[in-house]
User: Fold this.
Amino acid sequence: MIEIADDKCTGCEICGIICPKNAISFKIMDGFRYPTIDKEKCINCNLCIKVCPSMNNEKNINKTIVVYAAWTKDKDKRIQSTSGGICYELSKEVINRGGYVAGVAWDDDYRNAHYEIIHSLDEIPRISQTKYFQPRMAGIYKKIEYLLLRGELVLYIGTACTNNALRNYLGKDFDNLICCDFICRGYTSQAYHEKRIIDLEAKYFSPIRHVQYKNKEKGWKNFGTKFWFENGKTFYINRHEDPYELMFKKDDFNTRPSCFNCKYRNLPRLSDITVGDFWGLQGLSLEEERQGVSAVIVSTEKGMKIFDSIKSKLEWSEHSVSEITRGNFALLNQLNKKNGASQFFYDLERLSISKVDYKYAIRGTGKMIKVLKFFKNVLKCNPADFIYFNFISSSVRRKKHRYIFPFWGSKIDLEKKSQLIINDNLFLNVPKHKKSKEEMYLKISRNGSLEINGICKFGAMNTIEINENAKLVIGRLTSNYGTTIICGNNITIGNDVGIGRNVTIYDNNFHSTNMNSNKKNKPLVIEDHVWLCTGVTIVKGIRIEYGAVCSINSTITRNIKSKNMVAGNPAKVVMTNIEW
Assistant:
């Protein structure tokens, strides 16, 4: 008869599935499943003990460790995936061979999730993307065994602990089974997720239509969580402001107890292949950082064969274990456990979700993180410039708790009667190369104005000039090295505009001729979610609509419609209806 402590049990449910008398059921405690024994039914066969991953240490004979950074060449699938889309390509390969894929899918009401098996390419999105909390196993081991005994190829994608449970249940290796786990920080409680869904549905007066954790519409390194509702409304919250994420950083009470002493934080893995985010990878371009990069760890010959079979569909490069561990603490290290989880779950059951968030995530933690980030940024600035432009200059108008951060090398020239309107933080001379003396230049002439309406970062070797009586309005963006913006009349740049190296934007050629007089006062508008690649030049009187892409070294002389890609000099449409 199995007797396992709550801080050892991983909730894999294998004991209940293996029991020949159905003597083991599962109780829900704090949103996690734990086994309970009906002693009258139990015959003390001890099968549950023999297969329990937590009570047995399987000998790991795997020796191969090959590490890759990789992402799918399918840009749409890469954006939709949690990181680089490797699980998508693995699933696609197995299904194209006539096989099956087992992974985690949402329940219809999005309050819970479960393991299920798919057999067609159209079904892959059902088991894609991260679900932070622990799903129901839903009899997955028996279903996989049935397929394997029929000779079917099966790919299983799950945590390392459930991979081990599956192997224990099967009792032997199958050549037609590929085991894939992921770099796991730990299971969180489904109870918190469900309560959050109920609260949001009440606020938006609509059922949830879809949920996506680690949504990348703001970029891979700046991901968030997005909720879609049946009434067409959406709710998005960035990772740096999400109470769910902040709880991890503060006390981590929402994590399953066994995850604080996980026996699978090691290498090589028992599974064939391991995937995750390649945080900390050096040398990425802005595009790669925005779209996501997967870490791939191959631990068996079988894993190498399946990865080799999809390499032609990937961009990939070989790396070292140390490069992965630099950005993935939980790969080899245990989480720090703090006392207080019982009180957290007591409050979670009785308090509103907003009160739980405030008590365990926002109170103290949010302020502390903001204060630490603030002083970290201030230390990178010329202190005299920081004080002058934030607190003394009559040309600057700041929204409360919004600042100009003139990092070392920033040159700012604000003439009399000019205006710099700060509605969100403005960072100057970032990014720049470490230990370099690179500079950037910002000048606003008399009666000119610059309005910042989103977090804005201008990189090294940028030149931003606003001439007399001209107005430049900018949303949330980051510009790469060498950007030049010359505003002689009126330029508006929206949110989430990607600016590559050596991009030039100007709304006036400053030399009147008969050829250009009709566009003298026509504004230049760049709408939201536009990508300006390296070397792009944009001239006056242009409107670039939402979702457009201007390819490398393009010269933009005509308006660009939404979701069109243009290339050339002068630029012409080369693709339509693109998504990125």
